[in-house]
Amino acid sequence: MSAITLVRELLHKEGFAALFKGLAPALIIQGPGNGFYFWTYERIKKIFGVNEELSSDRAIWCKQVLYLCIAGGSAACISWLPVYPFDVIKTQMFCERKKKITMLKVARDGYRRSGILFFFNGLGLKMISTFINNAISLPAFELSNRYLLQKRD
């Protein structure tokens, strides 16, 4: 089944609004979550003393890169904590078959079923995958960017 077929089927069964189901929690996650992520990353780098210039000494350079990796993974985990409940709500909204579902209804129903733990379902696995992914991707981006800017100058 193609993506176009799936979209047509979704539009037929649930209407145009189904294309935007889960948009509100996604915006909460992406907006403040990403801003907090990069701010936290910069703060952790500062704590480790990793500045814009990386050392030419191989041993010091390796230590600085390790600090960048720790900063990337830690910043991602820290920034996910306050927005993770919205990710759970968003996922539940995607799974809901009703045409009209609100964040508040999902949150209330989930809380009634599972209590406060509803909002943190899967958090442990999310933290592991988030740390690994961001400990690699953010430092790789930063180091690539530094290298390219250095070559340009």
Description:
The chain is mainly α and 153 residues long. It has one domain (20-152): Mitochondrial carrier domain (Mitochondrial carrier fold, Alpha/alpha barrel), CATH 1.50.40.10. 77% of the residues lie in helices and 0% in strands. The protein contains 5 helices and no strands. Helix 2 runs antiparallel to helix 3 (58-95) and helix 3 packs across helix 5. The protein starts with a helix and ends with a helix. The mean pLDDT is 87.
How much strand content do the residues show?
under 5%
Low-confidence stretches: none
- Rg: 20 Å
The tally of domains stands at 1
Biggest beta-sheet profile: none
Descriptors for this entry?
153 residues; mainly alpha; Mitochondrial carrier fold; 77% helix; 0% strand; elongated
Short description:
The protein is mainly alpha-helical.
Secondary-structure blueprint:
Elements: H1 3-14, H2 23-48, H3 58-95, H4 103-114, H5 123-152
